[in-house]
Amino acid sequence: MPEILVAYSDCLDVATSHDYSVLFKCSNQYDYAGMEYTGLAIIQEIRIEGRHVKERFPGEDEDEETSDESVLGLSSDIKTQKLLEIEPTPHYFHQIIKLLLKHNKVEDENGETWSMGEAYEMEDLGDNNPFATAKIWLTKKEGEFFTNVFGEP
Question: Do residues 140 and 105 touch, judged by C-beta distance below 8 A?
Answer without folding.
Answer: no
